[in-house]
């Protein structure tokens, strides 16, 4: 049975998550992290996927991406996945799939949830207890977004609206980390990720259905089987 096609709305940001097969480790050494990020940097630019934030955990990844074209995210993740799997399998003399199935994608409502979702991504290592503060973790976009480190990200308009200068924006963004993400927003993002649903208000979801004909199902009651974010991993990509 053929896979159902992914449909992305150009110009709208998406929270992308993908996990290692059986929650196995995908990144063992610094070279692995660097290789994966370098692939994203090059391939996303080629296919028009504007990356705003990311975090590479040991057994899963988070990206916040706005596609310029409907197929930008699918093309980027497919090619990155294939090339990274080849790199890992060759390096560690392994075979088989690296990731569990296809990535998960949740459209993110701007203004209301964008910066919350961006902080959610960059705070993953803190919630996992791997570091005390987000600046202590090497493999996320926090250093570029909050500290002004040189990088390759595309600032989103919601981020640019934080200030009139780069310094003002970084300072304002940094200050956001002084406030905890509410339990309600944490659960909303986790649930949306688990069911590939929009991170959005009910009114915004209705607009998506009316204006774009999107079919938005119901998220089940109760907690998803896996929170899906703060997993360090235990021990390896093909993407659809």
Report the end-to-end length measured between terminal Cα atoms: 13 Å
Measured as a percent range, the helix fraction is 40-55%
* Domain module count: 1
* Counted beta strands: 4
Give the integer mean of the pLDDT values. Answer: 90
Strand order of the largest sheet: 2-3-1-4
What is the oligomeric state here?
A: single chain
Structure notes:
By secondary structure, this protein is of the alpha+beta class. The chain has a single domain (14-202), classed as Transposase IS200-like (Alpha-Beta Plaits). The protein is built from nine helices and four strands; from the N terminus they run βαββαβααααααα. The protein has helices at 30-47, 72-91, 114-122, 124-127, 142-147, 157-160, 166-176, 183-195, 202-212, and strands at 14-19, 49-56, 60-67, 104-107. The protein has a four-stranded antiparallel beta sheet, sandwiched between helices. The longest helix is centred in the middle third of the chain and has 20 residues, at 72-91.
Please sum up the structure shown.
This protein has a single domain, classed as Alpha-Beta Plaits.
Question: Topology of this structure?
Answer:
Blueprint: E1 14-19, H1 30-47, E2 49-56, E3 60-67, H2 72-91, E4 104-107, H3 114-122, H4 124-127, H5 142-147, H6 157-160, H7 166-176, H8 183-195, H9 202-212
Antiparallel strand pairs: 1-3, 1-4, 2-3
